[in-house]
């Protein structure tokens, strides 16, 4: 129930569960959805500048069910989202504000809040005897407030790209949440690694903490993994050092690497909501570059950046996104979408000119 201000589920609270298809288990056919807006690139193109704000820059309509009386342009394209932002970021953001910078901030926090709702839910349920999760929903059906992890994907509609841009949640699906092998931890130091793949897994788990005040990185735990083929193979690990961390000053990173060196899961674990963290200004900047026919977003930060998110007007996806980035920064590859010849060609200059960066 996500009405009003709801429990954030940060940090996780895990238990040791027996996992086996031979035991009573479940499959979630509609895992909790979380309302969310899309990026500034998607939303702003269909709104006059005076309405660049999640409250539309005007008085609220009076609504009963799906019928609204009033002139607010957001009234029929805004499933309630304020409570998600306030739950994870507190009251630091003026949700009535309008303008480009205000709208970008509101939309970023909306998308990160959605990602955190689903992230905490999936990491909790993957620690239990669940053998599948379908999420609501995949894609938006127009540039609006909805539940999708992909934006509206009609490239002939202003501000949209074919297939829809990936929102932060969709990048988290790829980096950890729906990875065959992934790991997470709670604040008391109970961690798990789960293999839901069909092959045995050999590799390494490395847990580190980052101090948000000093940028110092500390290795908390390293272990070799040897796991049978899944689904539902789980290994529990107790890491006492986690319980000693200052929850508002430290974040954890759980990286699972296969024996061939491939990173199969990379998970940033919070011990407190973003609104309570002692973050310094990262002062992130980005420059788009081209090298040898490949495209990159060259990011520079002056302090640790949390959930650093790259966005562009161009068609394609970033190789990685929604990152924990330490000074001096990171270089992220952008992969243009491969489309039929002469349909919607990739515009190199558009990528170089419009790539931008945000963080908590």
Give an overview of the whole structure.
The structure is a single chain. The chain is of the alpha+beta class. The protein is built from 5 helices and 18 strands. The protein has helices spanning 40-44, 82-89, 100-125, 168-177, 348-354; strands at residues 26-31, 62-64, 67-69, 130-135, 181-185, 190-195, 201-211, 217-227, 233-238, 250-258, 263-269, 285-291, 294-300, 305-311, 316-318, 323-325, 329-336, 356-358. The strands form 6 sheets. A 4-stranded antiparallel sheet has the order 8-7-10-11. A 4-stranded antiparallel sheet has the order 12-13-17-15, with helices on one face. The chain has a 3-stranded antiparallel sheet with strand order 5-6-9, with no helix packed on it. Helix 2 crosses helix 3 and helix 3 packs parallel to helix 4. It is globular and about 55 Å long. The two termini are 25 Å apart.
């Amino acid at each position: 129930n996500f009405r009003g201000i709801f429990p954030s589920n940060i940090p996780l609270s895990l238990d040791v569960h027996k996992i086996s298809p031979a035991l009573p288990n479940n499959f979630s056919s509609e895992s909790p959805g979380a309302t969310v807006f899309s990026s500034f690139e998607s939303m702003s193109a269909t709104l006059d500048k005076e309405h660049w704000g999640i409250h539309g820059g005007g008085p609220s309509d009076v609504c009963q069910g799906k019928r609204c009386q009033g002139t607010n342009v957001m009234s029929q394209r805004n499933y309630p989202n304020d409570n998600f932002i306030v739950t994870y970021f507190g009251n630091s953001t003026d949700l009535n504000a309008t303008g480009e910078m205000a709208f970008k901030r509101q939309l970023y926090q909306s998308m990160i809040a959605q990602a955190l709702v689903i992230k905490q839910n999936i990491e909790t349920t993957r620690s239990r005897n669940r053998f599948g999760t379908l999420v609501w929903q995949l894609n938006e059906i127009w540039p609006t407030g909805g539940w999708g992890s992909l934006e509206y994907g009609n490239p002939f509609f202003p501000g949209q790209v074919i297939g829809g841009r990936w929102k932060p949640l969709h990048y988290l699906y790829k980096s950890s949440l729906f990875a065959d092998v992934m790991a997470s931890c709670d604040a008391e130091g109970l961690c798990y690694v789960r293999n839901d793949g069909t092959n045995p897994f050999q590799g390494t788990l490395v847990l580190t903490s980052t101090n948000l005040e000093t940028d110092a990185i500390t290795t908390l735990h390293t272990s070799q993994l040897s796991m049978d083929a899944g689904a539902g193979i789980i290994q529990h690990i107790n890491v006492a050092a986690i319980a000693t961390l200052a929850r508002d000053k430290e974040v954890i990173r759980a990286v699972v690497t296969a024996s061939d060196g491939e990173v199969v899961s990379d998970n940033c674990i919070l011990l407190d909501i973003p609104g309570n963290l002692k973050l310094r200004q990262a002062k992130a900047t980005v420059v788009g570059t081209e090298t040898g026919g490949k495209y990159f977003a060259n990011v520079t930060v002056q302090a640790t950046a949390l959930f650093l998110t790259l966005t562009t007007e161009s068609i394609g996806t970033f190789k990685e996104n929604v990152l924990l980035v330490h000074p001096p920064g990171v270089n992220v590859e952008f992969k243009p979408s491969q489309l039929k010849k002469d349909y919607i060609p990739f515009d190199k200059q558009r990528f170089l000119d419009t790539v931008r960066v945000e963080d908590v």
